[in-house]
Write a structure and sequence with these properties.
The protein is mainly alpha-helical. The protein has helices at residues 10-32, 35-59, 77-97, 114-121, 129-142, 149-166, 174-206, 211-220, 225-243, 251-258, 261-286, 291-313, 319-340, 343-367, 386-389, 391-405, 411-425, 429-455, 470-488, 491-500; strands at 66-67, 74-75, 370-372, 375-376, 464-465.
């Protein structure tokens, strides 16, 4: 047996290594720093790590097209765009996480116990959420650039495990938060098992775990097609779970509602970007020549996901659950870009992911501002008349809702138009018709919330709009500006994506 010395391109891997280094430093701060000095130190290290990783990503952009780690990691144009999107969203998410009002004082305390009451009286802060966020971001950065199935699985677990923990850290409604974390963990474990099962079948089919090797086996047609179909099916289950596509969506509403709102926004935006980045690479590279095997099933999943998310969202009376079902519908829209399987589909998907991720984070940031004496208010009935009590807050939230609905002059309209155009070019007429119909249905419940805020009388129920912290205000302002700018002047970003996005095959 001959030992082969691994050849690694550390420049290409530097964004991931920088974020991991920041996470390790965060763990050391938790272990050795005085409690009263941890919060500011952790926030500084987190932001420094993410900004440095973004700078590293930009600096190596011209090197795109390089195999970074012996056919396990590839840094190409699409990888650069996806990683940059994840890091931008992560920086804004840290701004929201810095508002410790969302998080429990002591994560290990039993809800309602004397230990929890004492920790609340002492105003303790859960600062370990910062290194957990960095570990999750590191997994998200690796997930869309992995080019072999084992690396892909490792990245999936690295991004998922911190999220399972952070979902249970809500300061109020502790039992609901812990229930959400448990559901997310158990269902995530099942999806990981399906993912591994798919890897086994694909290895049995092709004799390799690299995406390029699987693609060559499909072109050669020398393997057992049953193994290929089973491998694609089981691998897709694990991936579709992460994006909340029907019928693998059951965790989304409960986790979105129970998790701390800052973590919900981070999950809804960054996880979807990373997961769809991986899905695009797998289907565009490994399974591109087997499209007739998987496209019909994925078309059905996309259609059901769009319709289900849009219809069920109408019945929701909790704003976070409504946004959860909205997220499910958007997963269906994004699957249209995967089904298109052309350059337009790749470009449109990346633009949509950026626009949707920024708007989603902004929407959840607004939710953190509506409170009463018991904390956040997510019951939509109590948002009645919000436009009269706080016109600016309601207007910004309405902007994000109009973006989700795909109304012109917002980034959502450009994203939907681009992705449906790509689907139409590929001949997916059913996707186009269903997407337009689902968007019309979705517009109903988005506009219903806007009517509730601006055209209903305020309810005297003790709710108020708190002044956002400086960091939260910055996150909301950036999200709103990006949403408007991309709706009015999308051409520069679309052109940049078109000239940059490609996959190494």
């Amino acid at each position: 047996m001959v030992f082969t010395t691994p050849v690694l391109n550390y420049a290409q891997l530097s964004p991931i290594l920088i974020v991991l280094a920041g996470a390790v430093i965060g763990v050391l701060i938790e272990a050795f720093a005085p409690r009263n000095a941890r919060h500011n130190s952790q926030m500084f290290i987190s932001l420094l790590s993410l900004v440095s990783a973004f700078a590293a990503t930009v600096s190596i952009r011209k090197q795109a097209g390089v195999d970074a780690a012996m056919n396990s990691v590839a840094f190409d144009g699409a990888a650069f765009l996806i990683q940059a999107t994840i890091l931008i969203i992560a920086v804004l998410a840290v701004f929201l996480i810095a508002d410790q009002e969302n998080f429990t004082a002591l994560a290990a305390a039993i809800p309602g116990s004397q230990e929890e009451r004492e920790s609340l009286q002492k105003d303790l802060r859960v600062t370990e959420v910062y290194p957990l966020t960095l570990f999750a971001v590191a997994g998200m950065l690796l997930f869309p650039i992995a080019t072999d199935l084992i690396t892909l699985f490792v990245a999936l677990e690295v991004l998922s495990l911190p999220l399972y923990l952070m979902a249970g850290l809500s300061r109020r409604r502790r039992l609901m938060s812990q229930e959400a974390a448990l559901k997310y963990f158990l269902l995530g474990a099942f999806s990981s098992a399906f993912f591994l099962f798919g890897i086994a079948y694909l290895y049995g089919y092709s004799g390799t775990i690299t995406l390029s090797g699987i693609q060559q086996s499909i072109v050669g047609g020398s393997g057992n097609d049953v193994f290929l179909l089973l491998g694609i099916a089981f691998l897709s289950v694990g991936l579709l779970f992460k994006v909340g596509a029907v019928p693998f969506h059951a965790w989304s509403p409960d986790v979105y509602q129970g998790a701390p709102t800052a973590i919900t926004g981070f999950m809804a935006a960054a996880t979807k970007v990373a997961a769809f980045g991986a899905i695009l690479r797998i289907f565009y590279v490994a399974f591109a020549n087997a499209e007739w095997q998987w496209r019909p099933a994925l078309v059905i999943v996309a259609i059901i996901t769009m319709l289900f998310g849009s219809v069920v969202a109408i019945t929701q009376r909790d704003v976070k659950r409504m946004l959860a079902y909205s997220s499910i519908a958007h997963a269906g829209f994004l699957l249209a870009g995967v089904i298109a399987l052309n350059k337009s589909g790749l470009d449109a998907s990346i633009f949509y992911l950026f626009a949707y991720g920024i708007a989603t984070l902004g929407a959840f940031a607004i939710v953190t501002l509506i409170r009463d004496a018991a904390g956040e208010v997510t019951d939509l009935n109590r948002w009645s008349g919000l436009g009269k009590r706080s016109p600016l807050t309601a207007s910004v939230f309405a902007l994000f809702l109009l973006t989700f609905a795909g109304i012109p002059l917002t980034s959502g309209f450009i994203g939907k138009f681009s992705i449906f155009s790509a689907a139409y070019q590929s001949g997916s007429t059913a996707i186009l018709i269903t997407g337009v119909l689902s968007s019309a249905i979705a517009a109903f419940f988005y506009i219903r919330v806007i009517v509730l805020m601006f055209f209903k009388d305020p309810v005297e129920d003790g709710t108020s709009v708190v002044l956002p912290s400086a960091l939260t205000a910055i996150a909301i302002a950036i999200a709103a500006v990006v949403t408007i700018v991309l709706g009015i002047f999308p051409a520069p970003l679309l052109s940049f994506i078109e000239s940059t996005a490609f996959f190494i095959r």
